[in-house]
Design a protein that fits this description.
The chain is an alpha/beta fold. It is 30% helix and 19% strand. The protein has 2 domains: 211 residues, Rossmann fold, CATH 3.40.50; 152 residues, Response regulator (Rossmann fold), CATH 3.40.50.2300. The chain has a 7-stranded mixed β-sheet with strand order 1-2-4-3-5-6-7, sandwiched between helices. The chain is globular. The N terminus is likely disordered.
Length: 437
Amino acid sequence: MVEKKRTTAPVTGVGRRKVITGLAAVGGAAVGSRLLPGYVPYIQAQSSEPIRVGFQVHRTGIGAAYGRWYDRTTIAAAQAINDAGGINGRPLEIVAEDDGTDPKRGAEVVEKFATQHGCDIAFGTLFSHVVIGSAPRAGELKIPYFVVSEGHHVASGGLNRYTLQPGITDVKSQVIAMAPWVASNLGKKVTMIFPDFAFGYDHRDNFAEAIKAQGGEVIETVAVPPTESAFFKYFPKIPKETEVLYHVMVGPAVLTFVKEMGEFYGANRPELFGFIDSLEAVDLNSPGLEFLDGSYFWEGHPRYAGDNPSAFELNYREKVGVDLNGASRNDPKDVATYSHMFGCWETLHIVKAGMEAAGYQGPADRAKLVEAVEAMTDMPESEAHPQGAKVFNGKTHQAFGHQNITKVGDGKLSVVHRTSIEDGLYPDEVDYTTQAL
């Protein structure tokens, strides 16, 4: 990160944090407030105050690997928006606060965005327990809270009208879309091993129903604390009659989890179907992962570009600084959380579209912004949506899109099945538009 000469006064209320008006390259430095290169053309128009996006980022805690890449993607998206003229003639400013991947601290961060930093929206949260802990405060403060989380907590009706998830699909949609392929190709007797918190429970509850609809059964569930660092003690709980081991793990010990699973099973293992969360930010060629050959993963956005990436995909990879293998262009060992971080890019572009549709001028127009996003439906594949087309359900505040099943081989992940949007649709469980703003 290279700081350039300041061209505008610091934003008030950010304490010791710095205001940066230019970036030489996309990076992940822990700065609190960033005015991106697109800000410079607006300096002469002193009335063009920036739109402040309160970025709730997991810099520390079990979500830190995701937070680092969510940060890079968010800065790249804001820069792209600013380079194209900003939003309603105003630049974006990213005001970042570390929530420690902690629910209580998350709520405090949302409050700071609304009451101290003068942010227009709050944005970016991934880990579901942090979203669940933070969303009530966003609703009380009436600050739009755009999460990039995947949890079913939004679409289930458990939150509030000010909380939206328009740029990434949820677990329920993902597992409904993929269960038919798993049952047809891998087996029907499934054991699930998952993190012992809300995100894991989403998998447990929704996949159990989805595989049952395909004539299958979850014969055992194994919940693991997300802060766990040793996993051998959990594997004996997996029944011998298991045909498919469905694994999804998060946190700093994911590589240890996968390695120990391989050491436990050796060559004599059930079919493996994992969510890429178990290997996000992990080099697939790391020693000890050879046993994964021939196994399968869910990926929201495939890490490896494949043979025919779209122009939108190539543009996105360039802007976020990721190569065709899903790692940093500056360091091939610095592997991205590629399957999730696209949600930051897409969500910020949705915020832009919503603010422009609402004629957004400031916090007094927050309700109009929520209503404008609720009115969205089809989101075609584009530079704003490089992961693929989506459909947004304004009643449930949830996006629906394509899912990918990839197979491990030759040290890469190759797409073997891509679902349709319709595969992941399910009946509405809430209508947030009936709630007061």
